[in-house]
Amino acid sequence: MSNISNFKNNFRGGVRPNQFYVRFYAVPSVVGVGQTWLDTAMSCKAAQIPSSVVGNVDVPFLGRQLKVPGDRTFEDWTVTMFSDSTWAVRSSFERWMSHIQGHTNPYASSDEVPYGSAYVHQMGREGNVICTYVMEDVYPTNVAAIELDWGTNDAVEEFQVTFAVNNWRQDHLAEPQPNGSSGVGIDIGVRATIPGTNITLGGRGIF
Description:
Radius of gyration: 21 Å
Strand content: 35-45%
Number of strands: 13
Largest sheet: 7 strands, antiparallel
Helix content: 10-25%
């Protein structure tokens, strides 16, 4: 029979929803520098482990409905970002969308695809990455408005970015290393190492 001691020994404190970080890769370059990356580990306040959805097809037979598996669908994915003091993070997403389609004309850049990818890392209680979700072939569809108000005190600006997703997968392999050695970069965060790992957060992002 189970008891509270067995539960304690197996549960081991569980997993915390605030132990995570997100990084974006291969987003469209607006400065003509090949592969780019945006390190949002220090500015992504909230994200989601994506839902897994397989559709259903009802097949009628003699007054009954036989349920058979349908197609897999990928729902939109939303992150909540802090506004950094240099406005670099929001500007990067706005430039990404401008690269897809400009504000003054309906044209898109012909030399680069609009897709990027994002790595969502769930961390354990010991500071190690226990699971990684790779959001593949994503692009922003909505960089949400920021409400400005003189009466809002003691708060940090934040905004949401919604992405269309073509695929996601769970991957325990290490994410690709950011290429911060080429091109013109912007510093969007301090550098810090997650305890117990060799993962360094912050650094340079090319956009």
